Amino acid sequence: MRRLPRGLIALLVGVSLLGAACAGGPGAGLGTAGPAQPESPAQPGSAGLPGASQLLADADELVIGVVLPETGLLNYMYPPMSTGVGLAVADIEAAGGKVRIIEGDSGTDPDLAPETVSRLLGEGAHVIVGAAASGVSQSFIQTLYETEVAQCSGSNTSPSYSTQSNAEYFFRTVTTAAADAPIMAGTIARGGGTNVAILARADDWGQSLAALLHERLAELDVASEVVAFSQDAANFEDLVLSVEQMGADTVVVLAFAEGLQILRRLLEAGVPPSVIHGGPGLYDIGLASKVSPGNPDHLDGLTVYGASGGDRFNERLGQTVGGNIVFGGQYYDCVVVLALAALAAGTHSGPELVSAVPGVTRDGRKCTSFGQCAALLAEGVDIDYDGASGPLELNDVGDTTVGRYAVAEVRGGALEVVEIADVVMGS
């Protein structure tokens, strides 16, 4: 699969306020925004299985190495991500598919993840799912390139993967930061922001998103300045000083767990939460309680953004993880797409499998579960899988061209979805 450059946003569609419909929390009302987007059923069945039985019986077991942050600065995202993987495995097995998971901790330390990936490959993993952070995936992507192993991430949004030569076997079920940026910029502009301080983690993800957000804000005639910070800083006093020196009326925090300390310092300096926006790395259902344990409603008005699944899938996911939905649908779809691509290719070999990936998500007959799609493949039908996170429509470089994002706000000390933005990327 040759890596080619592609355009940025072609169309931003389907933005609507959910209002009272979201009173139930982040899992409520997610399927109601914009044009109807198909998603996997809440409990996908085995529709069409008689036609798929021989194909599934003949297929070899797919061993999936899962590299997610059980520990580290993103461990609060581990529950929805790992649960999404587990639900996909359960659905594939219920439909007669043969998959097996072996897991390892990625942390958020680029020194840990390569060791984990090497172990998983040594234990027989045919494909890799993860890592959660773009910078962590960069720490082992060369290994996967050299060993020709397919990798899917449901949360890596750095644009770098779209063009770098060693991302030959990488694809993703989440849109790039080029989708995050217009959603965030539009919300900030509509909220009256005119001078924005963008406090960005000094890694691939943080700096890529910060640069794109700066560009999008400029297009909306909103001034902004990017201030990079090290996640290992002893304190973040200099960030607060930068905000004060800029005279910023809006602050964006692109951080992981270190963002909790940054938010505390901003609040202590008198920055109202209503003008603070947190990037996807801060989409944590317990954010307000962690920032202000004794007074979580002190954060009321703060806005956070994160990739989301659809309404029915989030309801199912919520049975295990409550309102903690971020990236769950995307990781569910990683597993299903890998399994379908292996069936379509008839092999677990990386070059053939990854070449089959775009084709199972576009330009064929619609199907919304592994069982339905497998039955069509058994009949020789070209399929178009629409997943838990909506239509995927992967392009030839393995980038998802249709994505869904939740915009959430802290209200009464709890994180609630207030808006849904559906994004169609250009190709």
Could you characterize the architecture of this molecule?
The chain is 35% helix and 22% strand. It has 14 helices and 16 strands. The protein has helices spanning 49-58, 78-94, 112-122, 134-138, 141-147, 177-190, 204-219, 237-246, 259-268, 287-291, 311-321, 328-345, 350-356, 370-378; strands at residues 9-17, 62-68, 99-105, 127-130, 150-153, 170-172, 195-201, 223-229, 250-254, 276-278, 303-307, 365-367, 383-387, 390-391, 402-411, 414-425. The longest helix is centred in the C-terminal third of the chain and has 18 residues, at 328-345.
* The CATH fourth-level homologous superfamily of the largest domain: Response regulator
Termini separation: 15 Å
Report the C-alpha radius of gyration, rounded. 21 Å
Number of helices: 14
Number of individual domains: 2
Looking across the biggest beta sheet, what order are the strands in?
A: 1-16-15-11-10-9-7-8
Q: What is the helix fraction of residues, given as a range?
A: 25-40%
Mean pLDDT rating: 87
Sheet/helix structural class: alpha/beta
User: Helix and strand string, N-terminal first?
Assistant: EHEHEHEHHEEHEHEHEHEHEHHHEHEEEE
DSSP summary, beta strand count:
16
CATH architecture descriptor text of the largest domain: 3-Layer(aba) Sandwich
Major β-sheet profile: 8 strands, mixed
- According to CATH, the fold-level topology of the largest domain is Rossmann fold
Gross geometry: elongated
Low-pLDDT ranges: 1-38, 41-48
CATH class of the largest domain: Alpha Beta
% residues in beta strands: 15-25%
